[in-house]
Hints:
Layout (H helix, E strand, L loop, with lengths): L1 H15 L4 H13 L7 H13 L3 H13 L7 H13 L3 H13 L7 H13 L6
InterPro entries: Mitotic_Regulator, Sel1-like, TPR-like_helical_dom_sf
Organism: Diversispora epigaea
Protein name: HCP-like protein
Amino acid sequence: MENKNKTINIEEEEFSEGGSSDGQYNLGCCYENGLGTTKDEGKAFQWYLKSAEGGNLKGQFKLGTFYFSGIGIIKDEEKAIQYYMKSAEGGHLNGQFFLGCCYHYGIGTIENEEKAFQWYLKSAEGGSQLG
């Protein structure tokens, strides 16, 4: 077990500054799910944030989810929709679907059925089984 934690720490150093946004996203997943390390939602949030800042669509979507649910951070529906929007505009299918939900139900924004429909449609046309 000690060896696994040491490996995670080495990876953290490699990805912490200017590293791979995919690697940063993967470290977020490790911390979120306790894979090879102790589960830590706060650290997961920080790695997803670094990933999202690097343009990673999956990281942006995860941040939306963390803000929406208050995982590792204080719940903030307005920030959730901002990160869902970034991932959706980049083509992330789940981001498009969840953005549609936000507009549909007025989560973090004013209800807008037309925008909800547009994002649901975009998600479905992209092949999402959710949209």
